[in-house]
Amino acid sequence: xxxxxxxxxxxxxxxxxxxxxxxxxxxxxxxxASSLHWFGQNAHEAITKSRQQVADFLGCNFxxxxxxxxxxxxxxxxxxxxxxxxxxxNSGQAQKKPHIIxxxxxxxxxxxxxxxxxxxxQIEATYLPVNREGVVKIEDVEKAIKExxxxxxxxxxxxxxxxxxxxxxxxxxxxxFKLRVPSSKVLFHIDAVQGANYLDCNVDKLGVDLLTLSGxxxxxxxxxxxxxxxxxxxxxxxxxxxxxxRGLMPGTENTTTIVGLGKAIQQxxxxxxxVSKIEELRNKLIDGILNSxxxxxxxxxxxxxxxxxxxxxxxxxxxxxILMALDQKGVAVSTGxxxxxxxxxxxxxxxxxxxxxxxxxxxIRFTLxxxxxxxxxxxxxxxxxxIIEKLRKISPLK
Amino acid sequence: MxxxxxxxxIQHFNxxxxxxxxxxxxxxxxxxxxxxxxVMKLYxxxxxxxxxxxxxxxxxxxxxxxxxxxxxxxxxxxxxxxxTLEQAISFDRKEIVEGLGSLPPIKIxxxxxxxxxxxxxxxxxxxxxxxxxxxxxxxxxxxLAKEKQEIKETH
Lengths: 398, 155
Ligand code: FES
What we know:
The structure holds two protein chains of two kinds.
Chain A: E1 4-5, H1 16-26, H2 38-58, E2 65-68, H3 71-90, E3 99-103, H4 108-119, E4 124-128, H5 138-144, E5 149-155, H6 167-180, E6 187-191, H7 203-206, E7 210-214, E8 225-229, H8 255-271, H9 275-292, E9 296-298, E10 309-314, H10 319-328, E11 331-332, E12 334-335, H11 348-353, H12 357-361, E13 363-367, H13 374-394
Parallel strand pairs in A: 1-11, 3-4, 3-5, 5-6, 6-7
Antiparallel strand pairs in A: 2-8, 7-8, 9-10, 10-13, 12-13
Helix pairs in contact in A: 1-8, 2-8, 3-4, 9-13, 10-13
Chain B: H1 7-14, E1 27-32, E2 39-48, E3 54-64, H2 67-80, H3 85-89, H4 94-100, H5 108-128, H6 135-154
Antiparallel strand pairs in B: 1-2, 2-3
């Protein structure tokens, strides 16, 4: 059966060039980058090259780039690292609890952690709402930020609905607050995992202090991410061991995946020209579905959105059953339905949009990638109406 | 979340038996899933067998739910069609899972939903026809009514 992959926000297929770049490090170039001999130095050099590739992509110094074992760990390190640093500086003084601002639609790697720290009594937290389009309001950031705020953590683009947040504008709010309140030490972290393929990630233009990237969302390997940490920003480690990554990610460097990530990020710039093609296909998919199937609606802003994302609800039909029916026809997608989530809760992102449980329940996320073709989109548009029609016949919600 | 669905489950999902709205049913059971918020409707027609006992002559379902819920509904209709009401009342919903081969643990509640829809359908038939309602059936019915209220309040 022909398999069509439309779940590129979950993970992407590894690029051939990336794979080839990685191969030697699984074979003859196996050295430990911390060893002083030839084998070790060989690996060390490869890692340095990769670090530079990431630095070029972010427009920063390569010493500001840290390879972290996954994007989740990178998010955790950024947030917990800042919190620990603040708590240490506060210790002994009668200071207010550190305050963190984040949004209601963050990835669990951020949201679960902030909620945990809050429950633990270590911090105070504000979860910014989003508007119907899925965008955080600048005024809300302005209102939330206060003297004891130590960190704002907002995602660049959302993994479920692809909606892009006004990062540079939020950075301006933070900057002007710092000018007004010189004692403020607030830092700005963004999770750019989903945005990296499509959006400008220049850290100075964005005005961020910390930034998280992932390897496997950009046609690179799994099990590797990046934390960008602006020079002068101090954070505490959260894992202890060796000196690797200057103490922030102890443990022998995984040269293979680091090299893969470097190559993948280099490829991102060269694939930028394909973005308009992806966007065209995505638009064809959205318009095709909205026009040919009744009771369908797009979740999240249409304009302020990654060019590869379509998140659509099909009224009266449950998402997991759509997903499974599509899977049997060779089409891979994902859903925000409660039935398909590990905890049987509907997607927190769709709930934050205020579309209601039922629309969350019947949502399907299609995320395109650089390998998708027009033929594939045509095929999906051909089979989808029949699938929905059949499931609607079974459904009591008409 | 990977869901290892059995072949049988997939078959029932792809070609569900006895689905769709029934015209002039003798009993309707409508239940909501307290866990994930899904909805199932079960219609029955009651007739008599040669011995004069009430039997489920016809049955059909409508389900808004996951693959497991749709497959469970289909399986249930197969299992109880033609059974006497007495047999149907004491129907053990574990039979749905057994009939399907297996269900992932997180999906067992979807088969519970199907069993409950049957309880409700029979209850509605008995009430409508002013027939005596066995105590156990009534108890479960009251529980379900309470759950329904809770679902309404949370959604
Ligand atoms: S009906 Fe929702 S999980 Fe099965």
